[in-house]
């Protein structure tokens, strides 16, 4: 008999990828309950049409999450640091505080519902790496260096605190960002460019579909409870990302590597936080990439996509994203 998996953030990138992976899995090990704040959204209706049970639940409403976890063998939990917030919500708490509160609600709900295997989508806490440094700005009144990393890393202990059988799934930079948030841009001279403050260091990347496929593989492996699984689909320098993009697009894409200081001064929201993130990626590249053994990830997820493979599948979306 198939076991039920409850998926938080089912209309988002990671949760949606897991829902699709479960629905496509020929083993039939699991059925899926897709949790979303709005069951009437287009994405929620698509999931329902594909065969998912779609229910309304909100990480800011613990009772709704507890109800949605009822009867589930397993659960996938992800928080969205980048969620659109009202001015009132922004004034009430920081985004890091939001993630911590939501993770704690999910952990308590999973404990109370008797969830037997939970996958928590997390990231490294950068604070030990940057400890004692005055060249990396502190954020959130000095609490964090990279809040969207550090709060997730801090939240890891909550699932242990509440005795939830958890596998900690550490993700990384999304290949999908080259389509959604940072596609190659065309300069005044007509040439395409990507900008990453990584110098010549490697940046680990992964396709979001592989986060879903790997989460499914973990849920099929109760022996992985208590372990931390760090994943990537490729480890490439900025020049290598540019070269792969050039091949996919059929025109040259150049790599621009601003300094971290230059990147912090860019005129977009959270530039300082993003610069701190890239500084962590660049300075800690040996440990970060070393923890993401591509061979080990591929053993869990044989369909793991390299950046080249991912580009071949998303070439049309990439071209449409370029202005």
Describe the structure in your own words.
- The protein has 323 residues and is of the alpha/beta class.
- The protein folds into two domains: 1-170, Rossmann fold; 172-207 and 233-286 and 305-323, UDP-galactose 4-epimerase, domain 1, CATH 3.90.25.10.
- Helices cover 46% and strands 16% of the residues.
- It has helices at residues 13-24, 42-50, 62-69, 87-92, 95-113, 127-130, 147-161, 177-180, 208-219, 238-249, 260-264, 271-283, 285-290, 294-300, 307-321; strands at 3-7, 30-36, 53-56, 74-77, 117-122, 166-170, 173-174, 185-186, 192-195, 203-206, 228-230, 234-236, 253-256.
- A seven-stranded parallel β-sheet has the order 3-2-1-4-5-6-11, with helices on both faces. The protein has a three-stranded mixed β-sheet with strand order 7-10-12. The protein has a three-stranded mixed β-sheet with strand order 8-9-13, with helices on one face.
- A hairpin with a 5-residue loop joins strand 8 (185-186) and strand 9 (192-195).
- Helix 3 (62-69) runs parallel beside helix 5 (95-113) and helix 10 packs across helix 15 (307-321).
- The longest helix has 19 residues, at 95-113.
- It is globular.
- The model has no long low-confidence stretch (mean pLDDT 97).
Strands, helices and their partners?
Layout: E1 3-7, H1 13-24, E2 30-36, H2 42-50, E3 53-56, H3 62-69, E4 74-77, H4 87-92, H5 95-113, E5 117-122, H6 127-130, H7 147-161, E6 166-170, E7 173-174, H8 177-180, E8 185-186, E9 192-195, E10 203-206, H9 208-219, E11 228-230, E12 234-236, H10 238-249, E13 253-256, H11 260-264, H12 271-283, H13 285-290, H14 294-300, H15 307-321
Parallel strand pairs: 1-2, 1-4, 2-3, 4-5, 5-6, 6-11, 7-10, 9-13
Antiparallel strand pairs: 8-9, 10-12
């Amino acid at each position: 008999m198939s076991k039920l998996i409850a998926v938080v953030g089912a209309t988002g990138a990671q949760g949606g990828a897991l829902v699709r992976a479960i629905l496509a899995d020929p083993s039939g090990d699991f059925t899926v309950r897709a949790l979303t704040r709005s069951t009437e959204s287009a994405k929620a209706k698509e999931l329902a049409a594909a065969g998912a049970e779609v229910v309304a639940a909100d990480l800011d409403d613990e009772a709704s999450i507890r109800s949605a976890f009822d009867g589930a063998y397993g659960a996938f939990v992800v928080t969205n640091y980048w969620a659109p917030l009202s001015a009132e919500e922004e004034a009430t708490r920081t985004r890091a505080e939001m993630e911590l509160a939501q993770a704690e609600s999910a952990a308590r709900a999973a404990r109370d519902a008797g969830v037997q295997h939970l996958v928590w989508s997390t990231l490294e806490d950068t604070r030990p790496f940057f400890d004692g440094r005055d060249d990396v700005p502190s954020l959130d009144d000095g609490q964090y260096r990279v809040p969207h990393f550090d709060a997730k890393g801090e939240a890891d202990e909550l699932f242990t605190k509440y005795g939830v059988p958890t596998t900690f799934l550490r993700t990384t930079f999304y290949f999908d960002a080259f389509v959604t948030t940072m596609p190659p841009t065309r300069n005044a001279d007509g040439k395409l460019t990507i900008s990453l403050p990584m110098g010549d260091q490697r940046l680990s990347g992964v396709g979001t579909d592989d986060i879903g496929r790997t989460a499914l593989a973990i849920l099929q492996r109760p022996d992985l409870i208590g372990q931390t699984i760090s994943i990537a689909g490729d480890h490439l320098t900025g020049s290598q990302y540019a070269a792969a993009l050039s091949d996919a697009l059929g025109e040259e894409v150049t790599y621009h590597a601003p300094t971290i200081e230059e990147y912090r001064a860019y005129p977009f929201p959270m530039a300082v936080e993003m610069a701190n993130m890239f500084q962590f990626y660049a300075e800690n590249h040996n440990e970060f990439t070393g923890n993401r053994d591509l061979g080990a990830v591929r053993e869990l997820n044989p369909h793991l996509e390299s950046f080249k493979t991912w580009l071949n599948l998303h070439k049309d979306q990439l071209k449409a994203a370029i202005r």
